Structures are given as structure tokens and as C-alpha cells.
Amino acid sequence: MSDDTKKTGLDRKLISLEEDYEVRDWTKSLGCTPAELREAVKAVGNSAEKVREYLAKQK
Q: What is the DSSP letter of 18?
């Protein structure tokens, strides 16, 4: 059984919308709203790099 409390490098590369604290942290980090974050993940997947690129093009 894996221990989900441990953070890995992969945690910083993938965006999870399942936990409220993750949405909060990612929106703060990316400077967007929760709705914008969800739209970006829907459009390009959960790669943080791709979401950053998508959001940059939207502004």
C-alpha cells in the first residue's frame, strides 16, 4: 500500500483537482481562479507545464 502523504517530484509536475488544498495551492502558484485551472486541465491534461503554457496563452 502506498503512502499518499509523501510528496515526490512527480507531485509538482501533475495537477490534481481531487483535493481542495491542491486546487488552492495550484491556483495560488499559477495566478488563476479555480474555474480557470479546471478549464486548463480539461483542455490540456494535468501536466503542470502544459497548464502553465495554456494559461499564459489565455492572458
A: S
Q: What's the pTM? A: 0.81
Q: What is the identity of the amino acid at 37?
A: L
For the chain, the DSSP string reads ---TTS--GGGGTB---SSHHHHHHHHHHHT--HHHHHHHHHHH-SBHHHHHHHHHHH-
Could you list the residue range(s) of the whole structural domain that residue 45 is in? 14-58
Tell me the pLDDT of the chain averaged across its residues.
88
pLDDT in tens, 30-39: 999 999 999 9
7 lies in some domain: no
